Amino acid sequence: MYILxxxxxxxxxxxxxxxxxxxxVFEREIHWFSQDLDSLQSEYFPAQTEPVFFHxxxxxxxxxxELQEPWSxxxxxxxxxxxxxxxxxxxxxxxVLFACAIEKRLAQLRREDPYELAFEDLISSxxxxxxxxxxxxxAEGKEEQRGLIVLAESSYQ
Length: 157
Known about the structure:
Layout: E1 2-9, E2 17-26, H1 30-44, H2 56-60, H3 76-92, E3 96-103, H4 104-109, H5 114-139, E4 147-151
Parallel strand pairs: 1-4
Antiparallel strand pairs: 1-2, 2-3
Helix pairs in contact: 1-3
């Protein structure tokens, strides 16, 4: 089974775009992803006992930008290195990234809901991905896989 974890960005503030993005992982790889990220947390935030959420905003922040703890302890170079190491984990563990960005102004002019548009687009992409995975599995005489979508806590009602 492949699990697609989705999260959103751009629902608050003056963001021009709404982004829905996620990572699809084969179920047996979740443990190893978690172990790799826990290792990074121990290295970069050794005193942090609670889980650190590796969101893009603090990782991409410029030097001098005000950041909340524990991110304020890292330099821009350290955050850039951490971001690259997270990307390496995704690549090496064969995670599949999915994303859709919707320009909020254009969606508003068309009287469309950015979340619904992005969600529909991502579900379609994930479905195509699963179809491709299963075509290959059948051709190789392997078991077909299923997909499960997990949504992060959302401000979308």
